[in-house]
Amino acid sequence: MTKNPILDYLKTGINKPITKSMSPSALWLKGFLINVEEGLAEIEYTVRKEMTNPLGTMQGGIMAALVDDTMGMAFFTLSQENMFTTTNLNINYLYGVKEGEKVVVKAEVVRIGKKIANIECKVMNEKGDVICTATSNLVVTSIKLNVPIPN
Fold first, then answer.
1. Residues 81, 6 contacting (CB under 8 angstroms)
2. How far apart are CA 16 and CA 25, in angstroms?
3. Percent of the chain surpassing pLDDT 70
4. What is the number of domains present in the chain?
5. Which residue from 33, 31, 38 is spatially nearest to 77, judged by alpha carbons?
6. CATH code, domain with 43
7. Is residue 151 part of a domain?
8. The predicted structure's pLDDT at residue 3
9. Distance CA 39, CA 109 (A)
10. Per the domain annotation, does 14 fall within a domain?
11. What pLDDT digit, counting tens, does each position of 80-104 carry?
12. What percent of the chain has pLDDT over 90?
C-alpha cells in the first residue's frame, strides 16, 4: 500500500467496470478501468448508439467527455486536498469510431503547479491507432475535497 489512499482505492477497480464515481457523467459513460497509477489513468469505453451522431460515429462532444473524465481521474490520483476544474480542453479529432467499437483513453498529468495542472491524453481505437489527442489545464479550487474512501 502507498501513502495515497485515493490511488490505493482506485487500484482495486482495475479490470472492472467503473460503477462508483463522484461524477454522474462518468457513470453514464460506462468505462472499464484498465490502469491507474499516480498521475495516470487508462479507461476503455464501448461506443453506444446514444453516443453517436447522424453519421453513426461517436459525437465529438461525447469524445470530449471521455477525454475530460479520464483526465479528471488522472488528476484525482494525485490525492489533492482541494477540488479542481477544467479551464480549457484542446482536442484534435483525427479519425472516427463507430457504434459497438471500443476505444482506450489514456491521460497523464504532465506537470502540476501550485494552482494549475497540465494533462495530456490520447484516444486509441481497437487497432491501436491514435484517433484523438488532447491537452487540458485544470485549476485547483478553494473547495475542499471530501471523499470517503472505503477501507
1. no
2. 18
3. 95
4. 1
5. 38
6. 3.10.129.10
7. no
8. 84
9. 5
10. yes
11. 788 889 999 999 999 999 999 999 9
12. 72
